[in-house]
Structure formats: structure tokens, C-alpha cells
């Protein structure tokens, strides 16, 4: 249901000619909170939903997509009422996406995602409720020996291509002063989660520099010196790359000292021991992509 709510919040805001900042002030929250609601990353609690319903002079059922206010609005694609039931029934859309990919049908998988994006499914929902869930399931299938490594690579590449297409179609916000460099530790190849976070920030107006894998520490230092980011995000999926992350972080702090950018670390390597991050020297820890996105937006 959260995808329906996010679409309705965004469309109601536009219908009432509010900017995200204006709506945030009226509701007593940060602008980034409104952005998270509209991108389908977070869902308002009961109190916030009631505040919105009162502000927009609508019922809670209407905001939740359980009833239509005006059939003309739905026809114009402005608000989701009964139409929302089609999306609501697709909470497990990632399974359809994954089925196509396991069958080797990348065209059908891509068309499925683009179809729902064009219908109004938020980019945040597509990234975190379709792509991320599908990739987590693929990881489990690979670990249990039910699929071969070539299938994992194929699905990852198709997902990256589809991510690029979704991002290219998404409207970007005005440029902000925030900037971030994203990098994976050493030869770490599992980087789609980090790419998702940077894509979402880029849409929100951040200046993002994605370096990927196998970046020499000296080159990372040069990138920081040139770009002067406020944040550096480091992803570690496999625990045996932890030492590379520690070396990377120490080098950043030794070089820039008090002027060093804030360093956020996260990834699957910390799943079994969340406190392990404290041994890396990072400033903050993120347990998942949503959390990392929120940490960055708050910085």
C-alpha cells in the first residue's frame, strides 16, 4: 500500500501547488521526510496520515487509495483511488520480475518495470521493493546452490541496465549543495545497493560521484581532494574485504584530518555482527539502503 500513499501525497501536493519545502513546514517535518514519503522510501505513521488528510481536506480512505474523490482526477492520472488497487495487488511485483529473469527473459522483465513506472510507481519503490528484494532472493538462491554464478551476473546486469532507464526517465530536483562519493571496499563487486542510494540522491539534486570497485586508495584520495564531498559512502558486502575498508578509511582521515568528509559504511558484511563497523573507523553505520539514504539526507 505504501506505493499508493506515496503517489497520492506527491499528486495532492502538486494539486494544491505546494513545494516539498512548503508542505514540510505545514506538517512540521523536514523537507527530506516529504521526499522520502513521495519516493516510497518511508511511509507516514498514523498521526502524520491524519495531518495530511486534514490539510488536504480529504478522508484517510481517500489518501490510502481506498476510495475515489473524483473520477476525472483518476482519468487525468492525478490521483490514485480505485486505480490504486491494481498497484496494491502488486506488492509482490518483484517475484514477477525475478521469474522473468530466471527464465532468461530480460526484455519482459524490463518492460514489466517500465510499465509500472509509467503508471506512477515511484522510483524508490521500484528500486527498493522490486530490484533490492529480487537481488536478495537471487543471493539466497546462489548461496544454496540453486542457481549458477552466471545467472546471478546476468540478473545483476539486467537490473543495472533497467535502473539506468528508470533513472533517465525520472525528473530531477534542483541542484543542492550536498555531494557524495560512493565506493566499494577493494575488489568488492557487489555494488548495486550503493548505486541505488546514489541514484536516489542524484534525483534529489545531490552531486554524486560513483567510483565503483577496485579503486586504488591513492585515486580515492585524489577524487576527494578534487570533488570535496561532504560524504563518502563505502559499501562492504563480503567480510574478507573489511581490511580494505579499514585501510581506505584510515588513509582518508590521515590525509584530510579535521577537514575529512563524513564517512558512512554499510553492506552485507555487517549482517551477522552490526557492531563490527566500529572497528573500521567510519563515522556512521547503515544497516540497509533505506537507512543509508536517510543518514545521507540528514547530514
UniProtKB/TrEMBL annotation:
<dbReference type="GO" id="GO:0046872">
    <property type="term" value="F:metal ion binding"/>
</dbReference>
<dbReference type="InterPro" id="IPR036594">
    <property type="entry name" value="Meth_synthase_dom"/>
</dbReference>
<protein>
    <submittedName>
        <fullName>Uncharacterized protein</fullName>
    </submittedName>
</protein>
<dbReference type="GO" id="GO:0003677">
    <property type="term" value="F:DNA binding"/>
</dbReference>
<dbReference type="Pfam" id="PF02607">
    <property type="entry name" value="B12-binding_2"/>
</dbReference>
<feature type="domain" description="HTH cro/C1-type">
    <location>
        <begin position="9"/>
        <end position="63"/>
    </location>
</feature>
<dbReference type="InterPro" id="IPR003759">
    <property type="entry name" value="Cbl-bd_cap"/>
</dbReference>
<dbReference type="InterPro" id="IPR010982">
    <property type="entry name" value="Lambda_DNA-bd_dom_sf"/>
</dbReference>
<dbReference type="Pfam" id="PF01381">
    <property type="entry name" value="HTH_3"/>
</dbReference>
<dbReference type="InterPro" id="IPR001387">
    <property type="entry name" value="Cro/C1-type_HTH"/>
</dbReference>
<feature type="domain" description="B12-binding">
    <location>
        <begin position="177"/>
        <end position="299"/>
    </location>
</feature>
<dbReference type="Pfam" id="PF02310">
    <property type="entry name" value="B12-binding"/>
</dbReference>
<dbReference type="GO" id="GO:0031419">
    <property type="term" value="F:cobalamin binding"/>
</dbReference>
<dbReference type="InterPro" id="IPR036724">
    <property type="entry name" value="Cobalamin-bd_sf"/>
</dbReference>
<dbReference type="InterPro" id="IPR006158">
    <property type="entry name" value="Cobalamin-bd"/>
</dbReference>
<keyword id="KW-0238">DNA-binding</keyword>
